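$ ./design --mode recover --in tokens.txt
reading tokens...
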């Protein structure tokens, strides 16, 4: 059996070593396709793969058509909006993710970006401190929980909105539950986005919400660019010169925003949230173990389709 690791954005070498150990230790063959230049490379590589481990790599019907032997795709990470679940199901392919494995890495980056924005992108002028400020966490999943934990260390007042999470779970973490999106944006100087990109959330954060932020508000997006209504965000930043937007998920209109709002927006050149050796090791090895458990024993605990 062949397990293909196809990562346009590569794992740290030490994570690949760990994946190899798990896969080969189970008696399977490991194939690596890293930093591939085109979809054609992926289509060729999946032809004889029984299992596929990916990151944000797109797996659509064309990839699945080309992968005649494929039984399982594991997205080494949390968000699986890059996989066409319906197509996978119709091809009889199981899809899994590795929830929680890279969440601390993403949460730490939130604070790297928060401090950078609060200190005016390190331009030498006087900024502000996170201590004592309000933080609203938009979705209290694994990343949101890590953000809350770290925010406490900064001395922030933390609230969160998540219709899928009981208030008691937030309260146990010392977080104030909020029950409307308006309340979240109105009452928090810093809002950190952690909603997945789904049919429900696409384009859901736009002009109305962003302009609800209090004076000198900061919106941080380490989730997905698709959840933002980009034209709405642009108008909000134009109408409210006090607001800032920093993102680890570069918007399509990044260049326009950077030139119109210089010093008030920042985008990482490539998604960096999960780009640590620790997160790569955690998510990569978890993915390899899940592949082996599925191929050997049919275990599909993290199945999402
Ligand atoms: C995730 O959904 O796990 C993160 O967005 C990380 O994505 P990446 O593996 O492409 O860095």
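writing sequence...
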């Amino acid at each position: 059996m062949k397990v293909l690791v196809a990562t346009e954005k590569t794992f740290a070498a030490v994570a690949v070593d760990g994946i190899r150990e798990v896969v080969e230790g189970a008696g399977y063959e490991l194939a690596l396709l890293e930093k591939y230049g085109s979809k054609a490379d992926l289509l060729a590589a999946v032809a004889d793969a029984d299992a596929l481990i990916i990151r944000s790599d797109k797996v659509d019907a064309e990839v699945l058509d080309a992968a005649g032997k494929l039984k399982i795709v594991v997205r080494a990470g949390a968000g699986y909006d890059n996989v066409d679940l319906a197509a996978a199901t119709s091809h009889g392919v199981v899809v899994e993710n590795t929830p929680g494995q890279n969440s601390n890495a993403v949460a730490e980056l939130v604070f790297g970006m928060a401090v950078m924005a609060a200190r005016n992108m390190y331009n030498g002028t006087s900024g502000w401190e996170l201590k004592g400020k309000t933080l609203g966490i938009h979705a209290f999943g694994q990343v949101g929980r890590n953000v809350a934990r770290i925010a406490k260390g900064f001395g922030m007042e933390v609230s969160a909105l998540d219709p899928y999470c009981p208030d008691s779970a937030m309260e146990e973490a010392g977080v104030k539950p909020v029950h409307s999106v308006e309340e979240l944006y109105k009452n928090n100087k810093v809002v950190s986005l952690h909603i997945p990109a789904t049919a429900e959330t696409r384009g859901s954060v736009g002009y109305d919400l962003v302009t609800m932020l209090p004076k000198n508000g900061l919106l941080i997006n380490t989730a997905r660019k698709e959840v933002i209504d980009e034209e709405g965000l642009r108008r909000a930043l134009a109408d409210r010169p006090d607001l800032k937007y920093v993102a680890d998920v570069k918007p399509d209109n990044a260049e326009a925003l950077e030139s119109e709002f210089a010093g008030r927006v920042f985008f990482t050149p490539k998604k960096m949230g999960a780009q640590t050796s620790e997160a790569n090791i955690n998510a990569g090895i978890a993915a390899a173990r899940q592949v082996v458990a599925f191929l050997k024993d049919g275990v599909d605990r993290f199945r999402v389709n």
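exit 0
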